[in-house]
Amino acid sequence: MGKTVILDHPLIQHKITLLRDENTGTRDFRILVEEIAMLMGYEALRDLPTELVPVRTPVAEAMEPMLSGKKLAVVPILRAGLGMVDGILRLVPSAKVGHIGLYRDEVTHEPHEYYCKLPGGIEDRLVILPDPMLATGGSAIQAVDFIKEKGCNQIKFMCVIAAPEGLKALQKAHPDIEIYCGCLDDHLNEDAYIVPGLGDAGDRIFGTK
Ligand code: PRP
Ligand code: URA
User: Fold this and answer.
1) What is the pLDDT of residue 97?
2) How far is the CA of 193 from the centre of ligand 2 (A)?
3) Which of 103, 129, 160 to mutate to test the pocket of ligand 1 (most atoms within 8 A of CB)?
4) d(CA 180, CA 12)
5) Among 53, 13, 60, which residue's Cα sits nearest to residue 32?
């Protein structure tokens, strides 16, 4: 089983509580999602490989670590995953960015794909797959299926809030990937919304309601 990390950092928890608040408006919601993504990225990328390189400081020459080799791609699940991209790119500005467009059918809750464009050489990249919400898990499972079909097997899925149902489904469907969650919530309601959750992440990021 791949690693699952529920991030319990107080800064992340504090910002998620602000996100949940129904009075938090679009502008603040966007800023918070980006900040949370950056904090989560810091944790999710802690195992990036480094190599020692020579550096001359004003005092001495030394061999010191720098990131080595690993090519990254950030592939948000549209729309809501877009809100997390800039936070991650602040940590790894040269990462390539792909997009997977999925929407959930309102009645069946099944994901439907409407767009996909991935960076070249995806099979050799470490893919960070952000989406704020992991509800039934259908969207994340389909996105991972798709990336794997393209030959990539190094995937870190990152969500702000997960439902236990979605987390279990994703772990079962893709036991090899790493999963990072800002918070594990209580359950899904009859409309497959996360409880207590934060509502519709895409609508809150883009102000569409
Ligand atoms: C939301 C969310 C996830 C999905 C999670 O997107 O951003 O992609 O639902 O639900 P699931 O785990 O049950 O699949 P939505 O389909 O509402 O599209 P949007 O981002 O365009 O609003
Ligand atoms: N998608 C969302 O945006 N929110 C939920 O609670 C579930 C799916």
Assistant:
1) 98
2) 5
3) 103
4) 12
5) 13
